[in-house]
From TrEMBL:
<dbReference type="InterPro" id="IPR017896">
    <property type="entry name" value="4Fe4S_Fe-S-bd"/>
</dbReference>
<keyword id="KW-0408">Iron</keyword>
<protein>
    <submittedName>
        <fullName>YfhL family 4Fe-4S dicluster ferredoxin</fullName>
    </submittedName>
</protein>
<feature type="domain" description="4Fe-4S ferredoxin-type">
    <location>
        <begin position="1"/>
        <end position="29"/>
    </location>
</feature>
<dbReference type="InterPro" id="IPR050157">
    <property type="entry name" value="PSI_iron-sulfur_center"/>
</dbReference>
<dbReference type="InterPro" id="IPR047927">
    <property type="entry name" value="YfhL-like"/>
</dbReference>
<dbReference type="InterPro" id="IPR017900">
    <property type="entry name" value="4Fe4S_Fe_S_CS"/>
</dbReference>
<keyword id="KW-0411">Iron-sulfur</keyword>
<keyword id="KW-0479">Metal-binding</keyword>
<keyword id="KW-0004">4Fe-4S</keyword>
Length: 82
């Protein structure tokens, strides 16, 4: 699954530098997560770092993007071809 930032976001800038896939960007009103780039940190960390640093817990599973850990790992590998 990809993650999504809810409208509760206060634009605190904590999540932006934590994303190893550069999936998080500034939106018009709140930060946004690009579901094509989001691997929930699979391939980098055991848990999504954006969720860990969010002080108001406004990052959750995106209901429209279900991906298994294996699919997320494939996405990670495609995004990080060396």
């Amino acid at each position: 699954m990809a993650l999504i930032i809810t409208t509760d976001c206060i634009n605190c800038d904590m999540c932006l530098p934590e994303c190893p896939n550069t999936a998080i960007s500034e939106g018009k009103k709140i930060y946004e997560i690009d579901p094509v780039r989001c691997t929930e940190c699979v391939g980098f960390y055991d848990h999504p770092t954006c969720i860990a640093v969010c002080p108001i817990h406004c990052i959750e599973q995106h209901p429209s993007y279900y991906e298994t850990k294996e699919a997320l790992l494939v996405k990670f590998q495609a995004l990080n071809i060396l």
